[in-house]
User: Fold ABC transporter ATP-binding protein/permease from Yinghuangia soli.
Amino acid sequence: MSTGRGTSRRGTGGRGTDGRGTGKVKLADRTKEFARGLTAALALTVRACPGALAVRIATVLIAGIAPVAASWLLKYVVDNLADGGFRTADLTWAAAGIGLLTVLLAASAAVSAYADGRIRRATSTQAQTELLTAVNRLSGLSKLEQPAFQNRVQLGIQSAQGAERLVGAVLQCAQNVLTLAGFLGSLLLISPVLTGILVAAAVPALFAQLANSRHRADMFWRTSSLARRQIFYRGILTDPQAAKEIRLYGLGGYFARRMRSDLDGINRQEEQLDRRLAVYETGLAVLGALVSTGALVWAVHKAASGALSAGDVSLLVAALAGMQAALAALVGCIAQGHQTALMFGHYVHVTQVRDDLPAPAAPVAPPPLARGLELRDVWFRYSEDGPWILRGVDLAVPHGGSLAVVGLNGAGKSTLVKLVCRLYDPQRGSITWDGVDLRDIPADELRQRISVVFQDPMEYDLSAAENIGLGDLDAFDDHERIRAAAADADVHDVLAGLPRGYDTMLSRMFFPDDLDDPDDPGGSGVQLSGGQWQRVALARALMRSGRDLMILDEPSTGLDAVAERHVHDRLAELRRGATSILVSHRLNSVRAADSIVVIADGVVRESGTHDELMAAGGSYAELFRLQAEGYAQSEGYEEAVR
Ligand SMILES: Nc1ncnc2c1ncn2[C@@H]1O[C@H](COP(=O)(O)OP(=O)(O)OP(=O)(O)O)[C@@H](O)[C@H]1O
Assistant:
């Protein structure tokens, strides 16, 4: 589904600015963050696929214990062969035991790969569903408009897909701990000192890897704005909607260069980190090799003097190799788990984000509008450091009355509409619905009572019927109502005439779900014109025409003169007796409203009926005169042409 014109125009915003670069977070907070991420990922896996997790735990036990058991059986075989006083049957059983363990190991590897696949699919689906559900639970827009929150969502989506990596890392750790404990126990029997040296040599590796994983998590956070922005550039470079401007203005190379520059920025930071990692890892690998070589030389020396048996040496060699491998894997998976858990913190943050509109302490279900809507001394700005857009707006829409809102570009008309829909709460003053403050009404219940056409409606990559049916999900399959709404919006003939009628996809991006043959020319969908899209959006809103309040924010933008006339007449009919707010720059279409307000400098500058405002000779009268003059000139031109 496309994000429609709104998103493609708006872009993705700038750098994260919540001042919470993870590099500055204290160790205690980081540990908490790590524990929170880990617990959330494990809980998610238990919710998503408990069966596969149980299978995976069983394979961990097998893979953790089998190598140690096999090396003890090997020691038994080697010692007996060296002594000479053995029973062939015993050695045969021991060898068969080693074989059985090998088979078990191989089988558990295959089963564990299968279980990992199931865990990956289930956790990824579950995590993405939970994350997007959480984002959708935000009833307002302010959180979604914060770049830092967008960064979080982006990293949350990435880390949601990696929940399985975290669980995998934990399981790998458990497996390696088991193997390591077994080999350490074996080595302790041979030489406690040697065991101590081997463990001590692993400690720097562990700390270095933990530091690296922390740096990597920090780096992802630092580069998240760049990462999001390059996705935006990629989007507009491939979006057919953006293609015309991109080509006409020759912007392709410019945006490609900006994308390249963002990618270079990310790569530089990754490169820096990788370089440091390479230096650490080389040093640590050399240290590990030196310790193993020293241990081997020591063991050979001891065996030559008779202090160790041949079986001891074989056990020591197996233990050294097994320990080295288990230690390296353990350190690696701790580091990966650490980094993934830190990243998973973003997912946890988003899924636990609090609603940006405070829930009412004592919610009131909005009654059917009987008295009207009232704004009293409403002040609003989009952010704490932003300018006031509304500075004390007072107005009223009585039940059954129509209010028209006019004003220059940027005056705050659409802002007012968004406040009435409770997409934001005003910072000061109140908006009341039959005397009940909107803050006391659950946003979703309020919106059930409102029908609205926004200035920048969505264009869904769905069929025509679906694009309209979305206006009222309860009537999604009610073809009669969909057609009636389309007729009211003057778009029925256009939609009925499409290759598959109302089932035609209004998109050139996707095929319809029921299409058997993708080569079917009728299945490829169509792209409507701007004015036709506007009418589809209007039809979507008209699916809710029985609601208590109808809001139309520039409903006729892009309509041709015939459609505009038709739509306005029909809307006027529908608005008759219904409570409505109409925002329009076409002053001719607002003159019939019961009341007209002019918004300027954040307040209601003028209000009254058309005749009253014209008689007052203020800015409304001036604007009306300017528009009328424009038409008069056109008429004069037409006459001249005639
Ligand atoms: N989401 C937002 N975040 C920050 N500022 C915003 C946001 N939306 C609008 N604004 C700002 O609020 C002011 C009023 O915008 P609004 O869209 O309400 O004006 P309008 O009267 O509807 O204008 P127009 O006639 O051009 O549609 C503008 O200065 C705009 O930049």
